[in-house]
Amino acid sequence: MDGVAVGVCGTDKEIVAGDYGWAPPGEDRLILGHESLGRVREAPQGSGFAAGDLVVGVVRRPDPEPCGACAHGEFDMCRNGRYTERGIKERHGYASQAWTVESEYAVRLDPGLESVGMLLEPTTVVAKAWEQVERVGGRAWFEPRRALVTGAGPLGLLARCWRAARPGRPRTRPGEPGAEAGPGRGARRDVPQRGHRRGDLALRPDVVIEATGAGSLVFASMAGTATYGVVCLTGVSPAGRKLSVDAGSINRDLVLENDVVVGSVNANLRHYHQGAEALAKADRAWLERMITRRVPLERAAEAFTPRDDDIKVAITLT
Predict the structure, then answer these.
(1) 162 and 75 share a domain?
(2) Residue 167 dihedral angles phi and psi, to the nearest 5°
(3) Is 138 exposed, middle or buried (0-12, 13-18, 19+ CB in 10 A)?
(4) Measuring CA to CA, which residue among 35, 207, 209 is closest to residue 128?
(5) Which domain CATH number covers 276?
(6) Same domain, yes or no: 182 and 248
(7) Which of 243, 263, 283 is the last residue in one of the domains?
(8) What does R_g of the chain's alpha carbons equal in angstroms?
(9) DSSP β-bridge partners for residue 260
(10) Last residue of a domain, one of 263, 286, 307
(11) Closest CA to 119 of 217, 127, 45, 102
């Protein structure tokens, strides 16, 4: 595989800072890069891939002695923690000018996505989050009318895009719900600004995708849904920060209104294929605006210094 680009996210920055990440056994360094994008140089016969195909490598691998979830292909839900992850946990990542990947852990992309294909991995996180919401809601009659997405970073923006470009839905047209949610289009307007009381979220959403990890927004989301509301947490909060919340009131609302709060991280092969289909349907210009900086490999260190207007930073490998 010829490396095309990798995206940089908060996890990569934590690894660079020494706060997270594990090198492969017996090694003292870890090659980064879990938001991958490559082009096939050579593929095994019968693999289903051909030279020139645009491909993304899956991040997680099941544990060698699989738990029940891993054994059934749901390795994003590993029970025993012995999974490995490319560029994060005990496996080198994709931030190389040449890399290899097992054909069963490679996902083909639409050839028109070469400039934005590194967005597939965060899109898979969004695909799983919405799937979790729909599965939880499906325990009873579920027809959500209002959804709130907190956060204007890549996950928040892609979560808005998902409802319009998800598999099975026609391409969004101007004026349709979701068509105007994107970079530079008021993406921060729906973020609650104060308090944890139910009345502070005036829209009373049926679904909340929480993509900031900010403690105050997490609890505001939990306390602000409509009856039978589902909150999916995708943002990882920093440890050690404390705030005061009315835990009794939140518990009372969750119980009496059949609300659900669920955490969601990583993705499996199903989500990668769903994400690839959704990206192929999404507006390319909209996706392009999410890539606010492209840093060449020889200046890769610059990608880890944040700037005020950053949304998604990519390191180009070609």
Answers:
(1) no
(2) -55, 135
(3) exposed
(4) 209
(5) 3.90.180.10
(6) yes
(7) 263
(8) 20
(9) 230
(10) 263
(11) 127
For 4, residues 6+ apart whose C-beta sits below 8 A from its C-beta are: 37, 38, 39, 54, 114, 117, 118, 316, 317, 318
Domain count, the chain: 2
Enter the tokens of residue 74.
């749901």
Per-residue tokens: 184: 């530079």
Kindly compute the dihedral angle of the four CA atoms of residues 116, 37, 50, 74, in this order, to the nearest 10 degrees.
-110
Amino acid identity, residue 160? R
Q: Which of 47, 12, 170, 38 is nearest to 114 (CA)?
A: 38
Contact call for residues 166 and 287 (beta carbons, < 8 A): no
Over the chain (318 residues), the average pLDDT of each successive run of 10 is 97 94 96 98 95 98 94 96 97 98 97 97 97 95 93 92 62 38 40 39 85 89 93 83 82 92 95 96 95 97 95 96
Is 58 found in the same domain as 151?
no
Determine the pLDDT at residue 164.
Answer: 61
Residue 285, amino acid: A
Ranges of beta strands (E only) in the chain are 2-8, 35-39, 54-57, 60-61, 84-86, 90-91, 106-108, 147-150, 207-210, 230-233, 260-263, 291-296, 312-316
89: domain range?
2-121+267-316
118 with 7: CB under 8 angstroms? Answer: yes
According to DSSP, residue 196 is labeled S
Give, as one character, the DSSP assignment of residue 98: B
Q: What is the pLDDT of residue 158?
A: 95
Predicted TM-score (pTM) of the model is: 0.87
Number of residues in the chain: 318
Phi/psi for 199 (5° steps) reads: -70, -15
pLDDT, position 237: 74
